[in-house]
Amino acid sequence: MTTQTHTSLHLTRRLRRLRRSEALRAMVRETRLSPDMFVLPLFVCEGEGIRREVSSMPGVFQLSVDEAVKETAAAHSDGVRSVLLFGLPDQKDDIGSGAYDPEAPVQSAIRAIKRETPGTLVITDVCLCEYTDHGHCGIVIDGEIVNDPTVEQLARAAVSHAAAGADIVAPSDMMDGRVAAIREALEEAGHQNVAIMAYAAKYASAFYGPFREADGSLGRLKGDKRGYQMNPANIEEALREVELDLAEGADFVMVKPGMPYLDVIRQVKDAFGVPTFAYQVSGEYAMIEASAAAGAGDRDALILETLIAFKRAGASGVLTYHAVDAARLIAV
Length: 332
What we know:
Helix content: 25-40%
Order of helices and strands: HHEEEHEHEEEHEHEHHEHEHHEH
Oligomer: single chain
Number of helices: 12
CATH superfamily of the domain at 32-255: Aldolase class I
Strand order of the largest sheet: 1-4-5-8-9-10-11-12
């Protein structure tokens, strides 16, 4: 004889009813992903026909301009319409002068991408770390990363990117006042329509390790970046950083890294209500790839679950090396 408790006889709210089939689960889905919310980062180097894999980031490559154009076109065909360009020049110096060379990899890639896939939104990383022989994001004088001379170089780089056709410039250096300086320089140069995506809350994170190989700074960096990137323990400081960048003219803000800072994304979005992006950084990418390679997790499921977490936390979009993979998974 089967018995039922009094509670079960009167249980009218059964939440599992809406989980019974894929169609039901899809109907009541609260958080949805789309390819147009993803930005694909690309590392652009000098030369031709170069496609050099980053050993700590399997599936990610340093690309010559012609290969970057191919990668962009392929991503665009899968619905990923935005790319973020990092430059890898052969020659570096102590002030990062290659950042504003009109023939440097980023500027050359912007022109080529706009020519071949004009519907692509091109965002450029504005920083000196890829261009300095010491690997820091700013100019070093007497062992100190100096703020204002660095800002002058960043403004020159941003204008150079805009002149080449960039849609958005993204300062990632974390120097004080750089958004205002870039906004003023863009206006003066006639680039009023170029937007600024500020790396507003960029933390001094252990998750950047593989990026050091990807951007060519591995082994060059002396010391660390804690003097200008944020303390991972702070969230109120992140809100002050965002407020300042918006006041200086930023159109978008970004939180970097992503998964360890979901609470920051949520608070930024709630406090300011502006387009807020998350950067799923190299270490996060490498963890997913390593987990899947070791048989410890389903790669596709890991990719989608992490991206859903960003969206659920309030991110307007995500910069991710898994952008194309995610777009294909969504389309299935």
